[in-house]
Amino acid sequence: MSQNTLLHPRADLELPGRLAGSLTATRGAVMSTEDFPGWLDRHRQAHSFRVDRIPFGELDRWSFHPDTGNLLHDSGRFFTVEGLHVTTEAGPHREWYQPIIKQAEVGILGILVKEIGGVLHCLMQAKMEPGNPNLLQLSPTVQATRSNYTRVHEGAAVRYLEYFLQPGRGKVLADVLQSEHGAWFHRKSNRNMIVEVEDDIAPHGDFCWLTLGQIGELLHLDNVVNMDARTVLACAPIGAVDPDRARDPFVAALARSRNAGALHPDVELLSWFTAERARQSVRAERVPMAGLPSWVRGTHSIDRPDSRFFRVVAVSVQAGSREVSRWTQPLIEPLGLGITAFLTRRIDGVLHVLMRARAEAGFQDAVELGPTVQCVPGNHDDLPPEDRPAFLDLVLSADPSTVRFEAVHSEEGGRFLNAVSRYMVLEPDEDEVPLDPPPGFFWVTVGQLTSLVCHSNYVNVQARSLLACLNGMLAGTR
């Protein structure tokens, strides 16, 4: 056997185009987008879903450790709620304490895709999560922690899991460890996967086949596509979409942004980001939750006295469609509607996004690329203008004519209660977003972002959600 027969192409050159074809296809071969809301409503009505707040004393198999005060499960699995002591060298708050979720195990977020009628379709799931404001949302094919899929809960098996755990069951199109919310998770990551199958799969009743274009249209609706689906979709190596087919000049600039040149070459972007990681100092030390300064544990919640940022609560859950139909658990409940926004600018006809090198206490590498603005505005009401998040007031006062995308999306519903943000893409006047931005900010193209999400710990989960929304804006481009 000659040596050449052992070699393979380093990349599937046809895949980006096939994914782009699915993105521009808004007519599914299995279900129409118009029929999807009714399908989701029928699933919501077919099962019994209920979430009730309960006192900590009514948690089943969860308890506060007598010495540390940490909140943990008696199996030693799932996750713990612990304390964190954070110190930084920048910003208006240089030191603080907070509760944080420690979940050491790596979960799987996976989407199966299959070519149907010549177009790639995604197998998506109607999945209930106790923290989602409307409970049932569109989720990946598989969305499971290791404790879930190893059945520590003694519940039913996770459907279609074998395609993501057994090599050879399908063709891997994307597979990368990605971080989760660094403000509420301590060094949490999930395996984001897209796997193509040729098997004839008859979807279980809670699953449906949709094109990327159909999902892109659904991303314009409030609280329909969940966070886990958005982060996986962002990892898809989608190819170029013909800008000449776009009816809207902004969308045409967005299409060019996938494969055109950039204001800054990739090596310059990486050098800037590496320098930001070296410059920004964040020290986060896990500490016992007992006696955590500035936090008070009551019968039903753990709060800050000023009622800001978030609280820890307990809930009882009934979910007829889940692997386990009843359980109790703690959740983190953010206080206030968040704002997550990309400011954009067309540079020589190519759309660029203003990214921020964002430090969060729970990140593995301290700093990741985040949206231009990512915060709950009410948490900063008492700060002087110079200490408020940069560009926040510009976003809050934006002229509606500059808003290119806006939808309310929820965050991870398995650990956070009613965590919702307004996801926005804006194109303000050029004099409001200079080519030479403030320190910590950098202009990048969508193509550069797509390259970075192929690697771990570069782009945070909120920015990945916005990247999925940007891709969704290309849905149906003719």
TrEMBL record:
InterPro entries: EvaA-like, EvaA-like_sf
dTDP-4-dehydro-6-deoxy-alpha-D-glucopyranose 2,3-dehydratase domain span: 34-235, 267-470
MF term (GO), any: lyase activity
Annotated protein name in UniProt: Oxidase EvaA
Matching Pfam families: Hexose_dehydrat
Superkingdom of the organism of origin: Bacteria
